[in-house]
Amino acid sequence: MIESDLEIFLRHEHDPENVKRSHFKPRDRDHFMTHWHTKVLGVPGNFVQTALADGEVAGGAVAWTQDGQRFLGYVFGREFWGRGIGTRTVRLFLEREQTRPLYADPYIGNTGSWKLLERLGFEREGTEAYGEDEHVMYVLR
C-alpha cells in the first residue's frame, strides 16, 4: 500500500452506490486521512492490502483488532464489481491474515458482501445493531 492509494479509497468511500450498500456515512478528506493514518496504518498489528486490477487500484482490504476480536473490512471501486476481483483479493488477503476466528460485519442490505464472505467460507452468526443500522455478523473459523 502506498499513500496515493488512500485518495482512491476516499473516492470509493464517497461513491453513492458504495454509501448505499455499506450504509456508511462518508468522511470528509481530513477526517478520512486522519482516521487512516492514526487508526489503521498507525496501529501495529493492523494489516492492509491494496488490490490492483489492470494496473489500477481496485480497492483494498484491512484487518484490525477490536474488543479482542479480529475483523476484516474491504472496499472496491464500483467499476471493478462483478469481475471476481473482490473475491480474489480477499482470498489472497486471507492467506496472509491467518488469525481465526476472523469476523466481518457488513450492513444487512449489502448482499454482495454477504455472497463474497460466504464464497470464502465465512458463516453467518447473527446480526448486530450499530445505532439504528443492522449488520450481519460473519465468522471464519
TrEMBL record:
The keyword Glycosyltransferase does not apply. Residues 1-141 form the N-acetyltransferase domain. The keyword Iron does not apply. Pfam families: Acetyltransf_3. Gene3D superfamilies: 3.40.630.30. GO terms for molecular function: acyltransferase activity, transferring groups other than amino-acyl groups. Keywords: Transferase. This is GNAT family N-acetyltransferase. The lineage of its organism: Bacteria, Bacillati, Actinomycetota, Actinomycetes, Kitasatosporales.
